[in-house]
Amino acid sequence: MFNAYRCKICGETYLGAKEPENCPFCGAHKHYMKTLAHYNRIKPKKISEKSGENILAAIELEVDNAKFYACAKRKSTDENETSVFKRLSKVETEHAEALAKLMDINPRKIPVYDECNSDPKKLYEEAHKREDRAIKHYSKFAQEAKEPEIKKFFQALVEIESDHLALSKKKTR
Ligand SMILES: [Fe+2]
Ligand SMILES: [Fe+2]
């Protein structure tokens, strides 16, 4: 049934016939997509100093990856690849914004220019390294989080970045 489905991770609303397998905005898995009656945003009342530090580090990482994908989008000569990198840049930007909302701070602006390779294989190799780095950091941040909501949030990000890793793995094989 056509309905509104809202994502517990990024807070965006998807309009469609049924909930999507992944949030089209942040990539969160299906079980985070809720009808409005069942929606509640993952957000702790209080955030410990350690989690606060980790969230800020995660924002930096997301901004850096969004910047890389934006560069990859500009450098890529294949129109299909361009569209993939564009989407990845938007997804990572969405992550930075969702993390910032956890702490009620303004998200950092994504810098426009960055240097990156133009060889498609090299771009995916770099993407692979970046996703791997994100997964390692977020797994640690999830472990360190005392707040169940922050733990869940970082676990959801690990799932999403693992999906990205599967994509870059396919491309570099
Ligand atoms: Fe989302
Ligand atoms: Fe991300």
Question: Would you kindly provide a written description of the structure presented here, covering whatever features stand out?
Answer:
The chain is mostly helical and 173 residues long. It folds into two domains: 3-38, Rubrerythrin, domain 2; 49-172, Ferritin. The protein is 58% helix and 7% strand. The protein contains four helices and three strands. Strands 2-1-3 form a three-stranded antiparallel sheet, with no helix packed on it. A hairpin with a 5-residue loop joins strand 1 (3-7) and strand 2. It is globular and about 45 Å long. The termini are far apart. The protein binds fe (ii) ion (FE2) (2 copies). One fe (ii) ion binds at residues 62, 92, 95, 134, 157, 161.
Brief write-up:
With 173 residues, the protein is mainly alpha-helical. The chain contains 4 helices and 3 strands, in the order βββαααα.
Secondary structure layout:
Elements: E1 3-7, E2 13-16, E3 33-35, H1 49-75, H2 79-102, H3 120-144, H4 148-172
Antiparallel strand pairs: 1-2, 1-3
Helix pairs in contact: 1-2, 1-3, 3-4
One fe (ii) ion (FE2) binds next to helix 2 and helix 4.
